[in-house]
Amino acid sequence: MAKIALAEPTAGVELELCDGAGCVPGPPMAPVEMQPARTTVEPIVEDTGVFTLVGDGVSGWSADFVGGQSVVGYRLIDTVGGVVAEGTIDVDWVRVGGTERCGGPRKAEIELPS
To answer: CA Rg, the chain, in Å?
Structure first.
């Protein structure tokens, strides 16, 4: 889980994210669709590596990432669909459970320039 805030809180902006270097920011992944008589699941949209993203430009956002890469791509969009800011930012993940050998849940606090 990552907590994401703007350096200068701003009302009326939407955040799009993606997980990893070279990724393309977009809305969170749609839920997976179970195929009848199959044991695999297939994403029904392009994989951004982000499962959930909730919040706003004033109070910040919370996001759940698939892999939690060390780089996150972001795009801030205004109310008419214009790009306010975009880029990548390094993320310093901290393990909050599990073990060093096997991994476990991690969290991060990210501040985006606005």
So the answer is: 15
Reading phi first (left if > 0) and then psi (alpha if -120 to 50, else beta), residue 17 is in: beta
Confidence at 46, pLDDT banded by 50, 70, 90: low
- The domain limits of the chain are 2-112
Instruction: Record the pTM.
Output: 0.82
Q: Is the dihedral of CA 82, 16, 13, 9 positive or negative?
A: negative
Q: Which of 85, 97, 88 is nearest to 23 (CA)?
A: 88
Chain position carrying tokens 């996001």: 63
Q: Could you tell me if 86 and 74 are in contact, meaning their C-beta atoms sit under 8 angstroms apart?
A: yes
CA within 13 Å, CB half, 87: 9
